[in-house]
Amino acid sequence: MKKMILLTSAIAILAGCGNVPNTQNEVKFETTTVQSTKVPASFESEIKAKMQAHNLKGFSLAIFEDYKLVYSNQWGVKAATSGALVDEETAFSTASISKPVTALICVMLAEKGLINLDDPISKYLTRWSLPNSEFTKDTPVTWKHLLSHMAGTTQHGFADFYEGYDIPTLAESLQGKLPRYNNEEINFTFKPGTDWKYSGGGYTIIQMALEDHFGKPLHILAQENIFAPLGMENTTMVQPNETGFLTNVASVHNREGDVIHSGLPITPQVAPSGMWSTPEDLAKLGIAMQMALRGDKDTIISPQTAKTVTDIISLKSSGGSTLGWFRAFGFGNIDWMRYDGSNTGVGGDFLASMEGGKGFVFFANGDRPNRFPVTSYVRGETIRMMEWEKPFNTNIQVPDLLLQAIEGSYKDFLYGQNMDTEIVSLDGKIYLDSPLFAHFIGKNLSEMIYVGDNTFKIMDYPNLIRFNLGAKNQVKNLTILRNGNDDLSIDVEIER
Predict the structure, then answer these.
(1) Rounded alpha-carbon distances, angstroms, from residue 285 to 63, 67, 227, 290
(2) Do 121 and 143 form a contact (C-beta atoms < 8 A)?
(3) Three-class SS of residue 94?
(4) C-alpha to C-alpha distances, 176 to 150, 217, 471, nearest whole angstrom
């Protein structure tokens, strides 16, 4: 189901990541297409071993550094039924990574003056109208509200469809005529701009507005504005039941390692989760974004567009969200623009640094228990072996009273997930023990370094955390700050 992002997927991610019996034939492996001297043979061997142990059918990885591709490799097969090897041109369903690409299209079109992102989205809709809501009667829903997940729309995600299924139209999707999953019409849960709620339905509204206004499907807008100009020849928003779909693609697999139905999910909600691509193609997109962010003006993406889609709009419940990307995890103490995607039987991750031109993209055609042990290893080990980790140290001692106040158990306060988190002292250091970090980078302990004023830098996390204490030296609440900036901060209630 198309309902996964880096945070809301975390609870499901953490369930069932143990060994999966390998009941299929031995996984086959492809050869390297681009090689970096920083990548040891042991890295590739470990990927093979983990794929074998967890019955993951296929995996594809691209790494870029200094604004160029430096490593690409593929392992395994496109489909268990065929045995054809994954290669550098094999496209995977990218799931929610479609969203930042859709957002980029919108900002590029706005820069050309073809749409206004501050306009009410209703001005651009003809096939369907927004439902009436007490939350929106005095606050029109704009493109920016929807792109940043701050419109309050429902419909988190959608069911997968396959050949032979009744495929809903966009209007039917928004009307809730989806008996396999969402069967309620999209609606609003708060006043737009006042809160944050992840919504695939919101991006479906964006898709309809784009198609209604320009009179062409989203896949053509994507091809014209991004895919063709950047040379992304193995990327499309065309669906498997449509003319022009790619021929070199990876099938989705269940946790037993079997192809699911036809292996090719059909996604009418293209904007939130219907793109197909390769790690190498998305590396081109990442590099183009990074070149624009450093100020290059002779690129497909302008510096202003790159800035617009990556400027943080909200810290609430997200750790750092923009018009299209998340800047919510600081793996290696690096500021990443990031999006992950997870559909049934396939998933991947896209990370590109805000500075320095480094990053990586990977996809795996297996279900969550099959791919998570591999992707967690690759995510953490890539940052380590590429020597990207940035140290962070201070000599400021934590006051004893502060340490006494903050030690103990909490519900996750970094991202608002309902899972147990602890602050512990070990060997004279303070750590945050979080299952989120255990999944994403393969270690559950992240050191907390004191920077003064009851405030800590947590390693691999991009924001600062300030503990606000009461008169009896108890923690009243927390303040999350971006780069120590009170202008970009949010107070968070805690549960202990």
Answers:
(1) 13, 11, 9, 9
(2) yes
(3) coil
(4) 21, 21, 51
> Contact 10/439 with Cβ under 8 angstroms?
yes
Structure tokens at 136: 């929106």
- Please give the chain's pLDDT, 496 residues, in tens: 433 334 444 433 333 333 333 434 444 444 445 677 789 999 999 999 999 999 999 999 999 999 999 999 999 999 999 989 999 999 999 999 999 999 999 999 999 999 999 999 999 999 999 999 999 999 999 999 999 999 999 998 888 899 999 899 999 999 988 766 656 889 999 999 999 999 999 999 999 999 999 999 999 999 999 999 999 999 999 999 999 999 999 999 999 999 999 999 999 999 999 999 999 999 999 999 999 999 998 889 999 999 999 999 999 878 899 999 999 989 999 999 999 999 999 999 999 999 999 999 999 999 999 999 999 999 999 999 999 999 888 889 999 999 999 999 999 988 888 889 999 999 889 999 998 888 887 788 999 999 999 999 999 999 999 999 998 899 999 999 998 767 789 999 988 8
**Block residue for tokens 């309809």:** 208
Residues shown for the chain: 496
Integer Cα distance of 339 and 96 in angstroms: 7
Considering only the C-alpha atoms of the chain, give the largest distance between any 2 of them, rounded to a whole number of Å: 68
Answering whether pTM is above 0.70, one says yes
β-partners of residue 420 are 411
How many angstroms separate the CA atoms of 27 and 15, rounded?
24
Q: Are 155 and 201 in contact (CB under 8 A)?
A: yes
The first and second tokens of residue 297, run together, are 């003006």
Q: How many C-beta neighbours within 10 Å does residue 164 have?
A: 10
Q: Where are the domains of the chain?
A: 10-385, 400-493
Amino acid in position 151: A
Helix (H, G, I), strand (E, B) or coil at 115: coil
Best CATH choice for the domain 400-493 from the list 2.40.320, 3.80.30, 2.40.128, 3.40.30: 2.40.128
Residue with tokens 């970090």: 437
Distance CA 235, CA 421 (A): 39
Helix (H) or strand (E) holding 395: none
The DSSP secondary-structure symbol of 473 reads: S
Quote the CA–CA distance of 76 and 365 in Å, as a whole number. 9
174 in Cβ contact with 212 (< 8 Å):
no
- CATH match of 10-385 with 3.40.710.10: yes
The answer to whether the CB of 463 falls within 8 A of the CB of 481 is: yes
Phi and psi, residue 273, nearest 5°: -165, 30
Distance between CA atoms of residues 18 and 12, nearest Å: 13
